[in-house]
Specification:
Layout: E1 6-14, H1 15-25, H2 27-35, H3 37-45, E2 61-71, H4 73-76, H5 80-84, E3 89-92, H6 104-116, E4 124-128, H7 135-143, E5 147-151, H8 158-162, E6 166-168, H9 170-177, H10 198-215, E7 217-219, H11 223-227, H12 238-241, H13 245-254, E8 259-262, E9 268-271, H14 275-279, H15 293-311, E10 316-317, H16 318-329, H17 332-335, H18 344-349, E11 357-359, E12 366-368, H19 389-402, H20 409-425, H21 430-443, H22 450-462, H23 473-490, H24 497-542
Helix pairs in contact: 1-2, 10-16, 15-16, 20-21, 20-23, 20-24, 21-22, 22-23, 23-24
Amino acid sequence: MNNPKRLKTALFVDFDNIYLGLRQLDEDAAEQFASNPASWLTWLIQGMPGMPEGHAQVNIQRDILIRKCYLNPRDFQRYRPFFTRTAFSVVDCPSLTSQGKNSADIYMVMDILDTLNHPTHFDEFIILSGDSDFMPVLLRLRAHDRRTVILSAGPASAAFIAAADLVISEDIFIEHALGVGGEEGRKVNGTPPITATPELLDAMAEKLYAEASANGEILATDLPKLYREFPEFRRDSNWLGFYSLRALTTHLVRRHPNLRITEGDPWRVTVELPRKVARSKRPSVERTSQPSSEDRLRKRILDLVRKLVARSEEPILMGWAAQEVIDQVGQQVLESHWAGAGTFKNLLQSEEGLEFEIATSPSPGYLYDPKRHTLPREESTKPRDEMPPKLAEFAKRISQITGAPYLTPRQYALIFTALAEDLKEHRYHLTSTSKSVRDRLIEQGEAISRANINNVLKGIAYAKHRFTKRDTPQSLARIYRSYILSRCEDAEMELSREEKRMLREWIEGGLREIGAKKKTEKKQEKKASASKDNKSTALAKTNP
């Protein structure tokens, strides 16, 4: 019996376009694309694992019945055998002009339209090209009720993207289809040994589990505060010898069987329940037998939480309440996985007649009595980081036109600073560099999505910049600003002198503010040091 989700697919590859576009972003990725097409072909066949939510390809398999690759034989002949060995039909498209323009797009258009009349009804057409000339073809395929997928290795027009049913982003393709830019090889040479004892790491893992089991998860941005509760932990110890928050947390998660890291923006530590606990249900209230030890523990926990809420003059944090329960009832709470409920939140939500309410938003979750307590507003739980209204309106408009992330000047400054720091220590790869920059920001308590960080990295790369350890936050910001300016010009959006000044303020202004703040701090430190020296000199004179 045929699987109804197995798509009959035709694949068309504009080799020159994709290879040159990838080379701008990551030379290793371009080489992997060109020399190992079997790897990314398998990724397509298997349903594109790793695609973000909303583009899930779960259980979708492909039969890629037509595979065609169009390349310039003068420049890329050496890659031809890799594609012929992977059952591609390779169409030679030599240069027709001195600028290197070839006829690949014309050949592709004709072949795609011919395929519409093929005896086999193709469900899906995958076009690997960022050439906007293909937009009319996408519209024709849509009119014939065919699914379309595109990969654009470079800036693509909004109209071209809108014409496709599914767009594969370059960063997803590089990370999951090509497997380039992993975490291997990113440790600093001469790494000193781990400075923490096994006992300390076990204690930290238990604390991590206790905190995560309250709500089922703990965000990465909350982890540094949790670790600082241990006197042995110091940031200047290079995260206890693990060099990063992510590496330390990964090690701690491995030390506890019920913890896992879940990817996201930001990533988080989640509780994975044992199968027995996950399948268990709340004991029936109609049971006539004597209460079990689990039932008694459950009642004890609930009675204690009711008292905590009743005594409080304001809503109490769910994590704090969970820790109070653990402190007062003992480790049997965690050993029993919250009396068989799995997490503190699950236990509370499974009980009727609590006499208080559970609020999972605003984060990190509260317990409160609606008759006496008022929940804090979402925005008041985080520091405000606003732009002046005129700059905010301008930034939003530019963001809509160019796709530049709608971030504040301070957030842009943090990205450029973290990027420059990472480049001093590691070779650039789009995937691993964006992960590292994201994690450096998380360590500072700033959760900026990888999608936004990738956008900045790709913009700098599209400006034909090659990342090196000599890059500074200021130079990176200038390059990215020039890229945004070019995108405005491509969209025929001419900026006035005042608007160009505002663009500089938006992208680079945060760095000037940070620089001015550091200068002020240095002056204050210097002044304090001089005052201390003067006092020491005066004291020495009075006490010869």
